Amino acid sequence: MISEAQFIAWFFVTAFSPWKGGVHERMVGLTKQALRRAIGRHLDLNELCTFITETEAVINQRPLTYVASDSLQILRPIDFLHPDPHLQLHVDSTHLNDPQFTPCPPSSRICILEKWRHTQRCLDKFWTIWHSEHFHSLREQQQRQLHNGPRSQLKRIPRLHEVVLLQEDKMHRATWKLAQIIDISPSSDGAICTAGVRTANGRTFLRSISPLYSLEIEGREGNMETEGTPVDKQIPNSDARLGKCRKKHNHPLSLKQDKKKKS
């Protein structure tokens, strides 16, 4: 009755198909884990409702893909729900000690400020945990695309002109930094460990490929040849080097070369 009154339609995944709907199920799991680690059982009902609303805004501001690579403008889930939203209340913490400062008409100023401070601390802790876990989830997604085995240690090599997420320490809440790959230069042994990137403000610098993450929804043009060079040729002789390594080390834990059999 409630579903019919609210025009709620239910859509179910196919039975015995746990891989369907895995993206949003993974997101729900990450959010629950971050909530438990951030707040535990220390919030009352009103604080919890406020905190859940704030975390919903944080999660819905994660970048899905980019609109244009030249401007590095991102497309987020919140852009479908509330176009051009202003969700965060930026309050200078230096004003909190001012006795005339009131962020809202309170019944008890000290009580309101203390609750607000506590919620902000919980949100910052939630952001730190969820931000790190989301990057870890993106890395797992890239590894599954490369190899279906349970122990894949392969890392996806960023493509030239691809727009990626740049992981940095101590980023502000709901802040994501995007960059575009402008240069990929293999080392002397053919491995790609460093890439040149350009941020939205035009700054260019070198970064290791470790803090570079593909977006949740990759662009179609990322799979195409951009400079006339096939993607599989960006790592020269990679298959040959892997083949020699496998022949040299028959056992995965062996660190010594196999001795030649005496004739």
TrEMBL record:
Residues 220-263 are annotated as: Disordered. Signal peptide: none annotated. Coiled coil: none annotated. InterPro entries: DUF5641 (IPR040676), RNaseH_sf (IPR036397). Residues 115-213 form the DUF5641 domain. Gene3D superfamilies: Ribonuclease H-like superfamily/Ribonuclease H. PANTHER family: PHD-TYPE DOMAIN-CONTAINING PROTEIN (PTHR47331), PTHR47331:SF2. This is DUF5641 domain-containing protein. It comes from Gnathostoma spinigerum.
